[in-house]
Structure formats: structure tokens, C-alpha cells
Amino acid sequence: MPSKRTSVMARSPDRDQHDSESSSDEDSIVNEETVESTPEREKVKDRSTPQMFPPPPLSDTSSTGSPPPLHHRSRLPQPNNWDHRSRQEITDITDVMQNFHPYSQPPDVTHNTAQGGRRTAADRVNRYASSASDDTMGTGTGRWKVSAKIQQLLNTLKRPKRRPLPEFYEDDDIELEIAANPKDPNAPKPEGGCMSPAIGEQLVVPSGLPRSLEAAITRYGNGTFKAPVATVLDPNGKLTSSLTYGKLLSRSHKISYALLTKSFSKNGDTSLKSGDRVALVYPNNDPINFLCAFYGCLQAGIVPVPIEVPITRRDAGSLQIGFLLGSCSVQVALTSEACLKGLPKTTSGEVVQFKGWPRLTWFVTEHLTRTPKDWTPTPRLTDETPAYIEYSTDRDGSVMGVTITRAAMVKHCRMLTMACNYTEGENMVCVLDFKREVGLWHSVLSSVLNGMHVIYIPYALMKVNPASWMQMITKYRACVAVVKSRDLHWGLLATKDHKDINLSSLRMLLVADGANPWSLSSCDQFLSVFQPKGLRPDAICPCASSSEVLTVSVRRPGRGGVNATGRGVLSMQGLSYGVVRVDQENSLTSLTLQDCGQVMPGCVIVVVKMDGPAYLCKTDEVGEICVNSGATGTQYWGLQGLSNSTFKVQPLGSDGQPISDAEYTRSGLLGFLGPGGLVFVCGSRDGLMTVTGRKHNADDIIATVLAVEPMKFIYRGRIAVFSIRVLRDERICVIAEQRPDCSEEESFQWMSRVLQAVDSIHQVGIYCLALVPPNFLPKTPLGGIHLSETKKRFMEGALHPANVLMCPHTCVTNLPKPREVHSDVGPASVIVGNLVQGNRLASAQGRDMGGLDEESDSSKKQQFIAEILRWRAQCTSDHILFTLLNSKGAVAKVLSCSELHKRAERIGNLLNEKGRINTGDHVALIFPPGLDLICAFYGCLYIGAVPVTIRPPHPQNLQTTLPTVRMIVDVSKSVLVLSTQAVIKLLRSKEASNVVDIKSWPSILDTDDMPKKKLPVVYRAPTAEMLAYLDFSVSTTGMLAGIKMSHAAVTSLCRSMKLACELYPSRHIALCLDPYCGLGFALW
Asked: Where is the AMP-dependent synthetase/ligase domain (predicted)?
């Protein structure tokens, strides 16, 4: 310790400095206590005067172990005045400090020097206490007055620190889990027998088919070198470039040679060898360069990893692509000259380092030197070596690399060749992304194996001319087209281009997303429109596929007969329980599914349970489709654990034993097997949302949302549906892009209809429905919605929606039960309960308002709200109660206590004289928001009528709003309608008569024509439990609820709000709530 001690309340300048600079309490204690005295420090201390208080904590929740905040400190009186203070003041503070033991270790008050050991952070108060008592009692002259703030601080410190919330209220995990996953005894259960594996026909390889893709390029590149392999349209629809098989052979050889001989590393060594991985970065309008690079890699034995072109440094999902490239040890990226120019660059001209990506060498695959004549590609690698890696995205946005071996690639091409009847020289039109999945398998691999010609339609052209792919079928007499159902939909809308289209040459229209619920209507509509244009019904071929198992099934082109195609009308309710049940054709709650074709040749398919061990499903049970064939992925590159659970599944029979030694691969598709080996898909594992024990498919929800007038509100059908976990259960969120010309009112009307549609069709509530501006959601490279990035932004609060409708009350049904405070539980029982269970009884209770005391205040004698108004009209007659503002913010009308009372009396006379109202009759008040409604309400109370406030119908939307008004009038059993002239005119208009019969309304009275007489007698309810008014509200799902409010309830509610919100007569409150129900009406 420094040799010259200062009082506990004194603070030297160097202490202030240390306190302000240190970031933790440990620092400040070291600075104050344990540093040895130095001459410099002694000089500073000599100059200092004891005049600073230690800062008090801000509240009683502050921990004594937290660093003190710096505040302006008040000065103490000078030392020469201290003798005149009484002894009591000092013993007060010292007694408090002596008795204060907030921590288990008692303070050492006998030693006040640093030699006694360094104090911990928690001992700061005791340090102050001990030095205070030494100073005052040792000298006998240290007397001072303790300020109220310091005394308050010490009293606060006497109380124990507030404990963390879980100790007050501990969730009962088991109860909440049970509530989130209730077992419905009436839920349908599967009744069929255990399914048998579905076996595809034997794979028969056509005799003339090349044995591999490299052999195919060599054969066609030499034999038919002038035959085209690919033709690309530019964004204007012109045929810009074409590639022949001869050019494909020579260019792929050049790339292969360059990859194996070029020095990519700085030390001059050849960096690439057979088996290494390289990234293929080509835009979607450049399939020719992609083809050459892909086959160049295959011939060099190098493994291509096709990825999307990064647009900016922080693309949606860029980090995950970088993780894939890093795990694959990719060091070189192949690209085209045009693509390289378009990539973002640093100031030095190099390609920027994309977020999360490894450092890459960018290599342009165009304009390469000729290969030496004596050079030949490396000998063919074994069949089990990787051919290429296709990226796949998980539901949380994680990107995995599915490894496809050379054997699987070739076998899959042979299976597609047999199933689709591909032959040499056929023309194919491809609209899909050629870098992955169906686009890659058909337009890059199978087409080359068969020597076909593919016409590629870039996505940019499809946006400008949606009928371009049909025009190419007509021009080239194409036999095959590979599309998605969205292309069929947009093609239907391009009606002006339909006249010259002829689809008679098309023998196969492959629908890549045939598993989606909306593909059926697209296929049906497309067929009905284009059958007169030559399209054959048996040419439409939906298929099911995934990156892990490649093609699961495809409908065979041109096949007729009983089980060639199939469709089922299934119960949504049954599907939500994982059970297949047939429903009526036109039922709102049914889902019509089309088949995705038959099992592929040489494949075996089983359906296993979605949860738990991989038991085989029953024949009428929905599960995950698993495939066993030599043509599936083998692993997620570098992710062994995940690979085993996906690519090495052994289905179990009902006896719990594996059905065979064969290993199956999970497809991620949910469905069941129909008659004749037809595969039906009704969802995907990534889109599955389990809400309150029932399963819902995101695509089904999207289809329902799209059915609610999509063209009018939703921008290009862009909708994202996902679930988030709230209170141990999943909650559904729907995010959609709204059209630019949508008003807020229209948007909320549409959102309300969506909630009702989803509730009635799926029997599930939507937790959050949000609308964002057009083109606002993060996009995938092909323009779709990047779902995982959308969910991420939603969770981070970075989505910035234009309109939001949150409905937690309709879907969070497993709230924890409130803890009950039992009256017979004494203090001892509570202590025992705490010790045994480790929790506290928790309850929430507002402050007591006290009863109505007849003696205390004249205003409290008036128990009912109408009586309080009459009392105020006498005592504070000129006090302004209401000021109504118009749309420009100017004062439109004011209403004082006496004016409200007089107008209420006149309305009471009107109801008595013209309405012949009896006490207890219900009166419907249909007024626009304003002061007339308030006057009418009190007018009803003055004569004992029960008012029912109702929002008037919207003049522009009578069709939907007027029936609600009529329903409330009927349900409330109102004998009279009270309204203004304008509203009455609307109710009796011709437009309204088309919705509701004018003659069916009860009597209608106009408040614009009122008698000016005083009310002879004001009604007073005999008991406070008599009905005061009815509070009707319509929920977001369209449910009407009415609440009876008694006079006692009204008075209690008003008094409670007055106390809680401190509503004094001098207060001004701005109300932006409608005065029809709930809190809005009560505040008005």
C-alpha cells in the first residue's frame, strides 16, 4: 500500500485515469491496491485532495463485481467541517458495511495492507468498508455526512444480487416437447403390408453404343467430325455459335494436354496430375466452352467440379462454395475469356479473393496451342476413380460435393439411353442448367454418348422470349426437349408466338421437376393448348431425380397401356401423417399427384421410414425413396460420416434384419410406389416441415399461396417457404416478393386470404408472412430464390420486408403453462421445494388497484363509465376529451366533456323515440372511425342498450367486407342499426344489394337527424355485472369472436390502464388505432 493512506471515499487523479482505461475489474484492482509506492506516485498523492466519491451502481441489478461506470462525482465538504457531524451518521455507514456479507468468504477487516494478500474483484466493497472504519475510528476526527445516494447504494448492496431468470422460471422440457408433438389418437395409420423392392427392367445396352464417353468423342470426332454437337442461341434468339464433334475432339485434347503439362505453380513444377480436382467456372450462356473443358478434364483424368460464376465478392452462398473448393483441394479454375473479363478485379487487375474461397489460379481454356502429334491422353483410368464432382445444397445452405465415379457416369448414360430411346443424330433442345443434375446428365453426357445435337436456350433469352425453345423445336424438328414446369407455364403465356409452332416432331418432352406439386397443372394446360399443334399426350415425360442418386425414375416416351401413366387424388390430411389416402377429385384439401414414371433399368427402389432406423415402409406409407444401382453417387467428398448415412443405407425388414447385403443411397425425395412400378413423389426431405407432429411440404404451401391471385400480387411467382424453430417446434414462414404497384391495403388483404387458404387446406397456421419489394430476395445464379440465404437474413433481422403479418397466436399452441401459486403452500414448503426441485414458483401479478372507497374521492363514487362521463360534464365541462385530425394533420373536430354528454343524450332520445329500444337490446353501431362512434356508444349506455361497434364495409371491396358486417349484426342479435347517412346509403346501394339482401337488415336509424331534447332519465345498471357492450373481432384466419364486457370489467379495465400508463387529465395521447375492438376501442 502507499505510505500515505487516503479515505475510502477519496479518489486520486491516477485512480480515475486507471479506472477509465482498464477494460476489466481485475485491472482496476491491481492499479488501486497492489502496485508498490514510487516517488512519482507519492508526489501525485501529496497533491491530491480527498474529494471524490466512488460511483454508485446504476441499479440494484448491477453486480458488485462489475467495473464501475464513470459519472460526475459530487464534492465533499472541506475537512475542517467534518468535526461537527454527529457520531450516529458515521456508525450508520460502518454498521452497514460491517454486516454486509454478500460472498461466502468473510472480509478480512483486521488487515488493510497489500501484504495481507491481493483482493479479488468481489472484495471491493469490503476494501472500502475496512479503510473507512480505520480512518474514522482511528483518528477520532473523521466525521462526515453521508449523502442520500451513498446511503441508497449501501442499502442496495445489503440486498442479494438478482438471480438469473432460469432460477425463477424453469421450462419443463418434457411437457413442452409433448405439447409440440401431440399424439392424435384419430390420426390415420398405415394399414398395408410391408412393401417389396421395386425392380426395374434389365439394362440392355444397344450394340452400337460406345463403351465410354472418351471413346464416343473419338468415334464421332473422327467418323462424323462435321456433325454438330452443340448450338447456342444468343439473348436475341440468333444462332451465334456451334460446335462440331471434330472441334470438340481437338479442343478437348488441347485442354487435356495443357492441364497435364502447364506449370500452374510459381516454382515451375507441373501442378496438375491425374486425379486432381479443378473448378469449372462458365456462365450459363456458354455451354460450348464448358463441354470442351469438361471432356478435356475427363481425358486428362482430372476431376472437374462445375460451379456457378461468382458475381460479387459476397454472393449468396459464396462461402459454402468456397468450403467445397477448399475441401476438394482445388487450386486451378478453368474459365472462358469473356467470363474472366467479367469477374470482379482488384486495383492491380487480379481476380478478387472471393469470401471463403481458396487462392485459385485462373486458366482460360480458349486459343490454346496445338497438341504434339505424338501425344496421346493418359491410359483410361479404372472405373472406380472419380469422374466429376457435382455440388449439392442442403436445407441449411451447406454445399456438399457428390462424387460420381466413371463407372456410375457411364452406366447412368446407358440407363438414360435405354429409358429415353436416344439414337445418334437426334436433335435435343435444352433449357436447363447444363452444369448439374438433369441438364448435365442429358445435354452434356448422354447426348455425347449417343452422338446427338443439342440446341441450348440460355436463361437470359427465356426471360425475353419464353417461346424460344418451342420455336427451336419447330425449326430443327427436334425429337427431345429438356425443360422445367416453369418453362411450360411461361411458354403458355407467350400466346402471340403460338401460331407458327409445330411440336409434331417431339417424341419426348422431359419435365425435370415432375415431382413438384404444380408440375401437373402445367403439363395438363400445356397439353390442352399444344395438342392441336402436334404435341402427343404420350410425349410428356415427368422424371424424378437428385444429385445423390441421379435419375430415380422417368416416364417412358411413347408407351401406352394400363400402367404407362398414373395420377392420384390424395388427402392432404393423410399425407401430413405420412399416410396415402385417396380423396375426392374436387376437394379443397386434396392433392393431385402425377407419376414420375417407372423405375430406371437396372435399378432397385425401396421406400424407408423418414425418421429413425431405415425400416421398409408399408405400401400405403410415405417415406424416403432409396436407390440401389451402379449409377449413383458414392460419397460427399471429404465428409465420411455424412456419406455413410446417405450412400450406405441397408434397409431393414419388419423383423429388424437387413433385407439384403446391397447398400442403397438416399435420394432426399419423399414418396411411395404406385401400381405397375410407378414412382410417386410428394415432397423432399429438404422441404419437409414438421409442425405439431404433422408433416408439411414447402412446395405444397407454395402451390397454395400461388393459388391466391398470384399474378395480381406476387412478382414473377417468387415465394420462399421455410420453417424456424420457436419453442421446441417448427413454425412456417412465407416470404414473397410483391409487385411494385401494390398498395399496403391490397397487400394485407391478400395476406389475410393466404392465411385463410393455408389454414383451411393444410390445417396449419403461418407464423410469419412477409412481403418484400421486387427483386429483393437473394438469388441463385439462374435467378431462383436462394432459400437458405433468405432464411439466414430473416433470422438475422436483415430481410427488411415492406409488409409483415405475424400470427404467433394461431400456431404457437404449446406455450408453457403458468406456474400456479398455491394458497396452502407456506414458506417452509417453498424452501423445501426449492431444495428438492431446484426451481422457484413463479407468477406474474399486477399491482393492486384497491376497491372503490366511498369516502376517498367523489369521482370514485361513480362506478360506471357512463356515470363518470356525466360527473365530468358537470365538474370539468370544458375539458377537451377528443381532438380528431384529418389526413393533412389539421384539427377536424374537438369534443369536450359537456359536448359528448349532450350529444350522447340526444342519441339516447333518438333511440327511445324512433327506435323504441328496450333496456338490454343490442344496437349495432356502424360508423367510420371518429367521434360520432363515441357519442353513439355513450348514447346507448345512457338508455341501457348494449352497443356493438362494427367497422363499416369498404366501398371498393363490398364483396368481402359487407358479409362480415352482416355476420356481426346477425351473431350479436342486434335489433337496430345506428349509422351515418353516408354509410346507410352504401348499405342500401345497388352494389350492396348484390351481396346482401337490403330487406334483411334490421331497422336502420340515421344519427344526422337527432332531436335536441334532454334525456329525462339516465339509465343506471342495477349491478356491475350487467352487460355494458359487446366486443367483436375477426381474426387473421377469418374467425369471428365476440366478448361480453360487463360494467365492472369496463371500469376495471379503464382504471387499470389509467394506473399503468399514468393517464392524468393533463396528458395528451396520440391514438393510431381503430376504435372497433380490443385495446383500440378501450383507449378511444
From this structure: 240-637, 876-1081
**Residue, of 671 and 855, whose pLDDT is higher:** 671
Please give the DSSP secondary-structure letter assigned to residue 368: P
Name residue 10's amino acid. Answer: A
| Domain identity same for 685 and 699 | no
pLDDT tens readout for residues 36-60: 444 444 444 444 444 444 444 443 4
Domain shared by 685 and 698, yes or no? no
Please indicate, yes or no, if residue 610 is contained in any of the structural domains. Answer: yes
Same domain as 710, residue 619: no
Residue 394, domain member (yes or no): no
Contact 557, 511 (CB under 8 A): no
Residues with Cβ within 8 Å of 416's Cβ and at least 6 positions away in sequence, in order, are 422, 441, 442, 446, 551, 554
Residue 206's SS3 state is coil
Q: Residue 207: CA atoms inside 13 Å, Cβ hemisphere, count?
A: 0
Strand-by-strand arrangement of the 1027-1034 sheet: 1003-1006, 976-979, 922-926, 946-950, 1027-1034, 1040-1046
Question: Nearest-CA neighbor of 45 among 10, 12, 76, 79?
Answer: 12
CA–CA dist 280, 263 (Å, integer): 18
Cell of 925: 353501431
What's the pLDDT tens digit per position in 1001-1044? 898 888 877 777 777 778 888 888 888 999 988 877 778 888 89
Q: Counting Cβ atoms within 10 Å, is residue 283 exposed (0-12), middle (13-18) or buried (19+)?
A: buried
Query: Same domain, yes or no, for 656 and 721?
Result: no
Neighbouring residues of 934: CB distance < 8 A, sequence distance ≥ 6 = 882, 895, 900, 1075, 1084
Q: Is residue 131 part of a domain?
A: no
Q: What is the pTM of this model?
A: 0.66
Q: What is the CATH number of the domain that holds 764?
A: 3.30.300.30
Cα separation of 620 and 784, whole Å?
34
Cβ atoms of residues 978 and 949 within 8 Å: no
Count of the separate structural domains present in the chain:
3
Chain length of the chain: 1084
pLDDT of residue 70: 41
* Phi, psi dihedral angles at 495 (to 5 degrees): -65, -30
Both 870 and 761 in one domain: the answer is no
Q: Which residues contact 456 (CB under 8 A, 6 or more apart)?
A: 230, 231, 232, 233, 287, 430, 434, 443
* One domain for residues 712 and 614: no
- 878 and 786 in a common domain: no
Name 570's bridge partners: 582, 591
pLDDT value for 838: 59
DSSP letters spanning 235-251: TTS-EEEEEEHHHHHHH
Write down the pLDDT at residue 110. 39
C-alpha span between 401 and 279 (Å, rounded): 12
- Give the residue among 1052, 1034, 1018 at the shortest CA–CA distance from 945: 1018
Q: Is 576 within 8 Å of 184 (Cβ atoms)?
A: no
Question: Which residue range(s) make up the domain with 1071?
Answer: 860-1083
Q: In the chain, what's the furthest Cα-to-Cα distance? A: 119
Domain boundary among 811, 844, 875: 811
Is pLDDT above 70 for 638? yes
